[in-house]
Design goal:
By secondary structure, this protein is mainly α. The chain has one domain. α1 packs antiparallel against α2. It starts with a helix and ends in a 13-residue tail after the last helix. Component of the MICOS complex, a large protein complex of the mitochondrial inner membrane that plays crucial roles in the maintenance of crista junctions, inner membrane architecture, and formation of contact sites to the outer membrane.
């Protein structure tokens, strides 16, 4: 694996982590306010789920030895 590929994988991991962290945090806040009378556990739970999914995706991405790229053939 070249340094460029490793850098791309880390960039994808960090972007995925930010998206999943933000989504889990946002959903946790919404559920906390709407359903659970402003308790903190839904926020922590949602954030933990987001970070856990991002960690799992990064682990799988960094362990793969090759990048699958699909090329779509255009019919004319």
């Amino acid at each position: 694996m070249s340094e460029k590929e490793l850098g791309q994988k880390w960039d994808r991991c960090l972007a995925d982590c930010a998206v999943k962290f933000g989504t889990g945090l946002g959903l946790g806040i919404v559920f906390s306010v709407v359903f659970f009378k402003r308790r903190t556990w839904p926020i922590v739970f949602g954030t933990g789920l987001g970070l856990g999914m991002a960690y799992s995706n990064c682990q799988n991405d960094l362990r793969s030895h090759y990048v699958l790229q699909s090329k779509v053939a255009k019919e004319q």
